[in-house]
Design the sequence.
């Protein structure tokens, strides 16, 4: 009688893609003859590089004494909308907003998605001026537009939010809209900024085809609130859109939304966040250290560009890597003309000669108390802005960014010159150790020294710091009730995603968007 088993096996790297080798290993693990294996299906693929040689861990679904039925491809659909379906305005077309809209349609609600920026195709053209001329296009850049900041900033899907929602459902929906199927099995899935635009465009088509709306270049400038309940929104063109509920999914860079909420005396809360730099190394160096390769030994074909994760605590503040982009680029992520902000991205192939990561220090509300006197609950936002303006001035114009060799940052001296970088607008040598507050500089130095002991050579002269990475997360939380997810002061206003302080990446934002839509239905 045939049966299906799920097993874990470990194979050498060079045998990991060989079906015959997988079959033999599965047979040994199950204690059966290899000819009784009727089929294999990969469920999880992870690289174990903790020691040399590198090995590959595989989770396999195995059919014994019979065939393995073909797994259906992920699909997304929604039932027909009722004629009088409740209208839900979704402010923001990032992952939280798009997944909220899809979930609304599944639940019989009509979403109207309002996005201040442009669609993904038009948005791509607006990246050229900021890269080549240092000229920012407002509301259409690396942060604003269809798909949100994630569209052109790598598309990493790894999350530790597995206990908070249906991660597998998020992956299935992405694959149903054109993401590569490997994200269903990779231990650290990644789509890539070259593939994500087509995925988000396909999601938009699903929203529209199922009866929803997506309106671009539609900026929300006010709320319609009567008797403690939100009734709709007002847009920059003077239009008013009525709604049965409003899902606020604007992302952590929509600072005008925080200001708008504060102007209505709608409760906001300060929250911890982190700021710092992008740190960049040659990718072959990271490959050698993480994969135990000899000097000048090329990375084996079956291994992806290597990544790392570093974290420590220095005097009650975390210092850690963030959004590590192997084989990637540093990109300009400013949203206003008077600032320089840096972020990282990778294409699906991750084939850039550089590796970059955020390297940041935790910031608690008490650390920005001096800004609270003028800015109140928005003190963290004002602190971020001050660093971004400092970076603009130190960079020397356009979107040029201030930079410093890591060894010079630690020793407190200007860099006479700078190594090659992936940051296209250019880098100007600057004393980053003086441009950040002393309490950040001192912690960053100690943290970097620790990381240099963990990864030998991490603090070489080839390592570059580029300032500043300030948009790691929102410095503000928009509070909501535990049961209905509504704002405690405004009925039917449901904050969600990164901008509201409830997510930290594409997947967790998507999950929170779905939760927000479910809350509307209750």
Sequence:
């Amino acid at each position: 009688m045939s049966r299906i088993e799920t097993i874990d096996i470990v194979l050498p790297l060079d045998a990991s893609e060989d079906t015959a080798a997988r079959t033999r290993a599965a047979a040994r693990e199950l204690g059966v003859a290899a000819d009784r294996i009727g089929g294999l299906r990969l469920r999880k693929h992870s690289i174990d590089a903790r020691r040399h040689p590198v090995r590959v861990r595989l989770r396999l679904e195995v059919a014994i004494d019979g065939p393995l039925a073909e797994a259906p491809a992920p699909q997304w659909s929604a039932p027909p909308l009722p004629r009088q379906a409740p209208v839900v305005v979704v402010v923001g077309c990032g992952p939280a907003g798009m997944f909220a809209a899809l979930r609304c349609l599944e639940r019989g609600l009509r979403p109207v998605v309002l996005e201040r920026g442009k669609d993904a195709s038009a948005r791509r053209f607006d990246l050229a001026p900021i890269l080549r001329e240092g000229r920012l296009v407002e509301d259409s850049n690396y942060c604003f537009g269809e798909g949100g900041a994630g569209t052109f900033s790598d598309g990493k899907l790894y999350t530790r939010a597995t206990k908070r929602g249906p991660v597998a459902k998020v992956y299935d929906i992405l694959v149903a809209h054109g993401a590569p199927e490997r994200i269903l099995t990779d231990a650290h899935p990644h789509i890539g900024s070259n593939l994500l635009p087509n995925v988000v465009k396909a999601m938009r088509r699903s929203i529209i085809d199922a009866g929803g709306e997506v309106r671009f270049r539609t900026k929300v400038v006010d709320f319609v609130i009567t008797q403690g309940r939100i009734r709709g929104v007002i847009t920059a063109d003077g239009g008013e859109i009525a709604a049965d509920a409003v899902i606020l999914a604007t992302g952590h860079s929509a600072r005008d939304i925080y200001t708008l909420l504060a102007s209505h005396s709608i409760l906001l809360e300060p929250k911890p966040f982190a700021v710092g730099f992008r740190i960049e190394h040659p990718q072959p160096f990271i490959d050698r250290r993480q994969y135990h390769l000899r000097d000048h030994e090329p990375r084996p074909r079956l291994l992806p560009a290597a990544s790392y994760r570093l974290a420590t605590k220095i005097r009650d503040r975390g210092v850690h890597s963030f959004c590590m982009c192997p084989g990637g680029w540093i990109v300009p992520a400013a949203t206003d003309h008077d600032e320089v902000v840096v972020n990282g991205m990778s294409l699906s192939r991750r084939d850039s000669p550089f590796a970059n990561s955020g390297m940041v220090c935790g910031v608690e509300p008490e650390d920005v108390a001096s800004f609270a006197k003028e800015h109140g609950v928005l003190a963290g936002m004002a602190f971020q802005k001050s660093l971004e303006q400092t970076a603009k001035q130190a960079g020397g114009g356009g979107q040029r960014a201030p930079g410093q060799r890591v060894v010079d940052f630690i020793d407190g001296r200007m860099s006479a010159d700078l190594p090659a970088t992936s940051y296209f607008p250019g880098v100007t040598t600057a004393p980053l150790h003086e441009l950040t507050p002393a309490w950040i500089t001192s912690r960053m130095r100690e943290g970097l020294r620790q990381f240099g002991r963990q990864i030998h050579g991490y603090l070489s002269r080839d390592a570059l710091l580029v300032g500043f990475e300030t948009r790691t997360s929102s410095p503000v939380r928009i509070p909501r009730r535990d049961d209905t997810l509504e704002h405690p002061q405004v009925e039917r206003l449901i904050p969600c995603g990164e901008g509201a302080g409830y997510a930290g990446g594409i997947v967790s934002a998507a999950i929170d968007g779905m939760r927000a839509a479910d809350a509307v239905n209750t």
